[in-house]
Design a protein that fits this description.
about 425 residues, six-stranded parallel beta sheet, Rossmann fold, eight-stranded mixed beta sheet, globular, alpha/beta
Length: about 425
């Protein structure tokens, strides 16, 4: 981030104190940081503290005579390489989605033509409120990037759920990716091009639920965030996107056609109905087994041992990857491993007939499952690419840009 210019907009939430650490780390990496604080933010951290860490004046007032003599809000919005909004409160998100410009922070955001990264933080009920979710979907459609929120305990007693501000390293990783480090394109370039226009991209996402009885099931731990991010990225790049999703607590990515399923067999059937496609991305965490026969009534405790007879589920990736009919030109699988990540992924690519495998370490200490960031290795016939840690949205964009380039070259070679 050396010599990159970051404008940090600090919203009014208890998590604002984490921005002090964010400023310090940004400057440690060589970034130049300016800060805008909302009126509410000054109730949680002082402008003096932020100024001491940025070594710059902190901006708070839209009607500052000296600043606005030079049209300060325009200057602030244009002189940054990246704007980070943290914490992005429900109010700030609503203002951004509604196009409001009634204070310095919202006016800067309305006036900017630079990439914006929002890190939401709020009470879980506020985050899950339909109005907030609508606003987030609208902003993502406008090209605003998001990192977080994470799930956990809130500042309020006995409150827990989604709404915690993403950790500072996660925000840093997302910022690096947007600024182009590690080969990730600048988001403003993505807005001006639609490299997947005219293509059909098929994506699977989330877990599958295999019933044990009417109320219990076998499943993998998967939030669906990475698969949904891939679908959203493909749609932004102009593709017609079919998203086959297992049960998740996520909003549908804008511009996609969503098919909801429960079981592996349902997912395979939906995938086959959705073909042909130019690209198939199998990001779902499909349960490997299902019960041989699920009873129609709930199993009861009897004091005796119960045995579950399991049978293997269909292998969706292998079924499509090895298909001689209607196989997409590019088949991409995901490999979630806890050890020997690259070795297992390479073996999986060959065994399943995939062109590429996106491999990641999902050990408990990585925070990948359900988290906002990911560290992946792209395994292809030509070798292995180790990608830096980045937000899942940036992993998705990088992957879809690679897919678009693959299709372009394949088309050119065939002509």
């Amino acid at each position: 981030m050396k010599q990159q210019r970051i404008l940090l907009i600090i919203g009014g939430g208890i998590a604002a104190y984490k921005c002090l650490d964010l400023v310090r780390r940004l400057r440690d990496e060589g970034a130049c940081v300016r800060a805008v604080m909302t009126r509410a933010a000054t109730e949680f951290v002082t402008p003096l503290s932020v100024a001491g860490l940025t070594n710059e004046r902190v901006f708070t007032d839209l009607f500052d005579l000296n600043d606005e003599h030079e049209i300060g809000h325009i200057r602030l919005s244009r002189e940054a390489d990246l704007i980070i909004v943290a914490p992005a409160t429900a109010d700030l998100i609503a203002k951004m989605a509604g196009g409001h410009a009634d204070d310095l922070a919202s006016t800067v955001l309305m006036a900017t033509d630079k990439p914006v990264l929002a890190a939401p933080a709020m009470n879980p009920r506020m985050w899950l409120n339909p109005a907030t979710q609508r606003n987030v979907v609208a902003l993502k459609g406008d090209g605003i990037r998001f990192v977080g929120p994470n799930t956990g305990e809130m500042a309020e007693r006995d409150e827990a759920g989604p709404g915690r501000l993403a950790e500072v390293p996660e925000i840093m990783a997302a910022a690096r990716a947007i600024l182009g480090e590690g080969g990730v394109p600048h988001v403003t370039r993505l807005r001006s091009t639609r490299p997947l226009a005219g293509r059909h991209v098929l994506v699977t996402s989330g877990p599958t639920h295999e019933p044990i009885d009417p109320v219990r099931y076998i499943a993998n731990r998967s939030s669906g965030r990475q698969g949904h991010a891939v679908a959203a990225a493909a749609a932004r790049m102009g593709a017609r996107v079919t998203l086959v999703s297992g049960p998740v607590a996520l909003t549908d990515p804008p511009g996609t056609s969503v098919v909801r399923v429960e079981t592996a067999e349902e997912m395979l059937a939906a995938v086959e109905r959705s073909l042909p496609a130019d690209v198939a991305v199998f990001a779902a965490a499909v349960a490997d087994w299902r019960t041989e026969a699920a009873p129609g009534n709930k199993l009861k405790k009897t004091g005796e041992k119960h045995a579950l007879n399991l049978v293997e589920n269909p292998d969706i990736l292998a079924t499509i990857g090895k298909s001689s009919e209607r196989r997409p030109p590019l088949v991409i699988g995901f490999a979630a491993e806890t050890r020997d990540v690259v070795a297992y992924a390479a073996k999986k690519r060959r065994a399943k007939g995939a062109d590429w495998i996106v491999a990641n370490d999902v050990s408990a200490n990585t925070g990948v499952l359900g988290g906002a960031s990911n560290t992946v290795h792209l395994v292809t016939e030509d070798g292995v690419e180790d990608w830096p840690t980045m937000a899942k949205e940036d992993v998705a964009e990088r992957l879809m840009l690679r897919a678009a380039e693959f299709l372009r070259r394949s088309t050119a070679a065939a002509e």
